Amino acid sequence: MSAPDTTAATVRVLEALILEKFKTEPFQNLHMLQGTVPSSPAHGGTCSEKTLSFLRTARRGGFNASLHSGFIGGNEIHRLARVQIDGQTFFADVGNGWPALKLYPALMEIDYNYFGMGFRTEIHRHRLVVFHRRNGMESRQLEIDFRPRPESEIMADIASRLDQGTEYPFSNSRRFALIVEDRFLFLRGERLEIYSDCGNDVIEGIAAGQVPSILREYFHFDYDLLFGQSSPESPERSEQ
């Protein structure tokens, strides 16, 4: 197999892993809103937990994968993975709340669509800029500096993010996202947004007490798996 064929085959394997993570490990901040962290990869989490889970699996598979960081709104608060394949650098944004299912090449701009929404990249000197399209609008989602930071520094940032009171775009509103069958579901505050290649739908007015039943009915996910018998009212208080 030629080098380009080998690279393409490796990319397909890693993108299959990304898809699996988006299907089995939810992006969710319900623990963060309570000031805790998930106790198991099966509980998912925010970009930090999801990226670290991806790295553990990728490294066990023999892939050269490292922890990387990105900028949202000019702040270095996002975590993702950097992967070396046949001397080329790619980025896996498996910790994205939205379904970023493709590897981003460092040296080639890409544009792709899933679930009725799109992602594209632009190369700006030493940074890769990622744009996200949905509902006819495009926004600047993420900037990735090609220059890596020591992994120990990023891990220290992850360990202290709750104590330091780091502000995220979702700091004051609940999030829970997962690919379920042929749809991408995203609980954002009091809205459940449902995306597919056939169109979008929205369910409004979801109160805190309805979250367990919403997770069970739409996400096929057991709320008790996350919190045991904890009351769902705690995340709601963080939204006030």
Protein model, in words:
This protein has 240 residues and is an alpha+beta fold. It has a domain of 166 residues: Arylamine N-acetyltransferase fold. The protein is built from 7 helices and 13 strands. A 5-stranded antiparallel beta sheet has the order 1-10-11-12-13. Strands 2-3-4-5 form a 4-stranded antiparallel beta sheet. It has a 4-stranded antiparallel beta sheet with strand order 6-7-8-9, with no helix packed on it. Helix 1 packs across helix 3.
The CATH C-level name of the domain at 3-168 is Alpha Beta
Q: What spatial form do the alpha-carbon principal axes imply?
A: globular
The helix tally amounts to 7
Low-pLDDT runs of 5+ residues are 229-240
CATH architecture of the domain at 3-168: 2-Layer Sandwich
Spatially, the strands of the biggest sheet line up as 1-10-11-12-13
Strands, count: 13
The CATH topology label of the domain at 3-168 is: Arylamine N-acetyltransferase fold
Percent range for β-strand residues: 25-35%
Element string (H = helix, E = strand): HEHHEEEEEEEEHEEEEHHH
- State the end-to-end CA separation: 57 Å
Multimeric status of the protein: single chain
- Fraction in helix: 25-40%
Query: What profile does the largest beta sheet have?
Result: 5 strands, antiparallel
Radius of gyration: 18 Å
Mean pLDDT: 90
